[in-house]
Amino acid sequence: MKKLLLSLLFVSATVTAQTIDLNYYLPKNVSYNSNIPTPKSVLGHEVGEWHVTHDKLVEYMKALANASDRVVLENRGTTYEGRPLVLLTITSSKNHQNLEEIRENHIKATNDASIDVSNSPIVVYQGFSIHGNEASGSNAALAAAYYLAAAEGQKIEELLNNSVILFDPAMNPDGLQRFAYWANTNKANNINPDSNDREYHEVWPGGRTNHYWFDMNRDWLPVQLPESRARIKTFHKWLPNILTDHHEMGTNSTFFFQPGIPSRTNPLTPKMNQELTKEIATYHAKAFDKIGSTYYSEESFDDFYYGKGSTFPDINGGIGILFEQGSSRGHAQESENGVLTFPFTIRNQFTAALSTLEAAKNMRTKILQYQQGFYKNSRSSETNKAIVFGDEKDATKTNHLAEVLQRHQIKLHELKEDFTSNGKRFKKGYSYVVPMNQKNHRLVKVMFDVRTTFKDSLFYDVSAWTFNYAFGVDYADNVSLSKAGAEVTQLQPKQGTIQQKSSVGYLFSWNEYSTPKALNTILEKGLRAKVAMKKFVNDGNSYDYGTIFIPAQNQKLNGKELFDFLEKVANENHIAIKGVSTGLNEGIDLGSRNFEAVKKQKVAMLVGKGVTSYDAGEIWHLLDQRYDMKLTKLDTDYASRVNLDKYTTIIVPNSRSIDKNLVEKLKVWVRNGGVLIGYRNTVNWLSNRGFINVKFNKAKIDSVNNVSFENRSLQSGAQVIGGAIFEAKIDRSHPINFGYKNDKIALFRNTKQFIQADAKSFNNPIQYTKNPLLSGYISKENLKELKNTVPFKAGRLGSGRVIVFTDNTNFRGFWFGTNKLLMNAIFFGKLM
Question: In angstroms, rounded to a whole number, what is the distance separating the alpha carbons of residues 805 and 791?
Answer without folding.
Answer: 6
